[in-house]
Automatic annotation (TrEMBL):
Similarity field: Belongs to the ABC transporter superfamily.
Keyword presence, ATP-binding: yes
Source domain of life: Bacteria
A GO molecular-function descriptor: branched-chain amino acid transmembrane transporter activity
InterPro entries linked to this entry: AAA+_ATPase, ABC_branched_ATPase_LivF/BraG, ABC_transporter-like_ATP-bd, ABC_transporter-like_CS, BCAA_Transport_ATP-bd_LivF, P-loop_NTPase
Protein name: ABC transporter ATP-binding protein
CDD domains named among the record's database cross-references: ABC_TM1139_LivF_branched
Domain ABC transporter stretches: 2-234
Origin species: Magnetospirillum moscoviense
Keyword S-adenosyl-L-methionine found: no
Keywords attached to this entry: Amino-acid transport, ATP-binding, Nucleotide-binding, Transport
GO biological process: one example: L-amino acid transport
Length: 238
């Protein structure tokens, strides 16, 4: 579904990605782990068209989207739930979800809203509440729900566990698995919580300094001594 070939990207003279190659197959959950500053968020943003790739290409279902504007990429079935959630804090939960549906066919809005609220019943209870007054976990649910309102075939998730309590983190990862299994949405997940991410994922990649250093199944990477040493020790298995 998603194929990234020899992708280079950055900000001005600062090169952040150095020839990234990876694939996400239809129906998979694929995770990308790595330390802060490795280039994970830049990769997701480049896939979405901002910043632009300086070299290489991004294919979505065989269509080259490398030079397309972000709104056209979204209309092709790709949604992005960004790092830090970035909901609209002054808007209500319902208004946030309406914003997510802008690129979708309005005829499906009611069905899509019901589907998201069934997945996140907490949002149903807070539908008229301002997004900025929600808890961190509820805001993350809202960010994912907003992305799902665009009816994506591929969902990009950037650090969905960031800043959340361990119990909430487990709940969010359970919901990601449910989205993939029940709603048939392919997921590309960027995470620093390597234990949960690799346990959930069918396959994974490890990024170091803007390059892919390792790749394998989630189970293989979990068992890798180097991965365990660098990413799984020190209490990150919450």
């Amino acid at each position: 579904m998603l194929k990234v070939e020899n992708l280079h990207s950055g900000y001005g003279r600062i090169q952040a990605l150095h020839g990234i190659d990876l694939e996400v197959g239809q129906g998979e959950i694929v995770t990308l782990i790595g330390a802060n500053g490795a280039g994970k968020t830049t990769l997701l943003m480049t896939i979405c068209g901002n910043p632009r790739a300086t070299q290489g290409r991004v294919l979505l279902d065989g269509t080259d989207i490398t030079r397309l504007p972000t709104h056209k990429i979204a209309r092709l079935g790709l949604a992005h739930s960004p790092e830090g959630r970035r909901i609209f804090p002054r808007m209500s939960v319902l208004e946030n979800l309406q914003m997510g549906a802008v690129v979708a066919d309005p005829r499906h809005f009611s069905d899509d809203l019901d589907r998201v609220l069934t997945l996140f019943p907490r949002l149903q209870e807070r539908l008229n509440q301002r997004g900025g007054t929600l808890s961190g976990g509820e805001q993350q649910m809202l960010a994912i729900g907003r992305a799902l309102m665009s009816r994506p075939a591929l969902l990009l998730l950037d650090e969905p566990s960031l800043g959340l309590a361990p119990l909430v983190v487990r709940h969010i990862f359970d919901l990601i698995a449910k989205i993939n299994a029940e709603q048939k949405v392919t997921v590309f997940l960027v995470e620093q919580n390597a234990f949960h991410a690799l346990k959930l994922a069918h396959r994974g990649y490890v990024m170091v300094n803007g390059r892919i250093a390792l790749a394998g199944s989630g189970a293989e990477l979990l068992a890798n001594p180097e991965i365990r040493s660098h990413y799984l020790e020190g209490g990150v298995q919450a």
